[in-house]
Amino acid sequence: MDMNWIAIGDINDIPLRGARCVKTPQGKIAVFRTSDNEVFAIEDHCPHKGGPLSQGIVHAKAVTCPLHNWVISLETGKALGADQGEVRTIRVRNEDGTLSIARESLMMAAE
Ligand code: FES
């Protein structure tokens, strides 16, 4: 088994254009599934005031924070538009729908 990847379940555990929150020792990770069945993971902590991004609305490759509507890119973790801030992105591997996240990018997220 490749120890550098942590299994986080199946793509079908995540609703289309939805997300789930995965708890790790390094904090909560929001794992998103776009309408194109792409999967992204970022810290579940809005760069504005820490809103739970996994409860936001997914559109294209971005999520709108449920608290004050900042829009965060799922690809870069950066706030879009006029807002300034970013969250860490976490590498996700999708093998025939089985998802895992890279341990090393989790460690970076915790720094
Ligand atoms: S906490 Fe996310 S927009 Fe304010």
How does this structure look, described?
This protein is mainly β. The protein has one domain: Rieske Iron-sulfur Protein. The chain is built from 1 helix and 10 strands; from the N terminus they run E-E-E-E-E-E-E-E-E-E-H. The chain has one helix at residues 103-110, and strands at 5-10, 18-24, 27-33, 39-43, 57-59, 62-64, 71-73, 89-90, 92-95, 98-102. The strands form 3 sheets. Strands 2-3-4-8 form a 4-stranded antiparallel sheet, covered by helices on one side. The chain starts with a strand and ends with a helix. It binds FE2/S2 (inorganic) cluster.
Structural class: mainly beta
Low-confidence stretches: none
Characterize the overall form.
globular
Mean pLDDT: 93
* Beta-strand share of residues: 35-45%
Strand neighbour order, sheet with most strands: 2-3-4-8
Major β-sheet, in short? 4 strands, antiparallel
- In total, the number of strands is 10
Summarize the structure.
Helix content is 7%, strand content 41%. With 111 residues, the chain is mainly β.
Summary keywords:
111 residues; mainly beta; Rieske Iron-sulfur Protein; 4-stranded antiparallel beta sheet; 3-stranded antiparallel beta sheet; 1 helix; 7% helix; globular; binds FE2/S2 (inorganic) cluster
Helices and strands, with pairings:
Layout: E1 5-10, E2 18-24, E3 27-33, E4 39-43, E5 57-59, E6 62-64, E7 71-73, E8 89-90, E9 92-95, E10 98-102, H1 103-110
The structure holds FE2/S2 (inorganic) cluster.
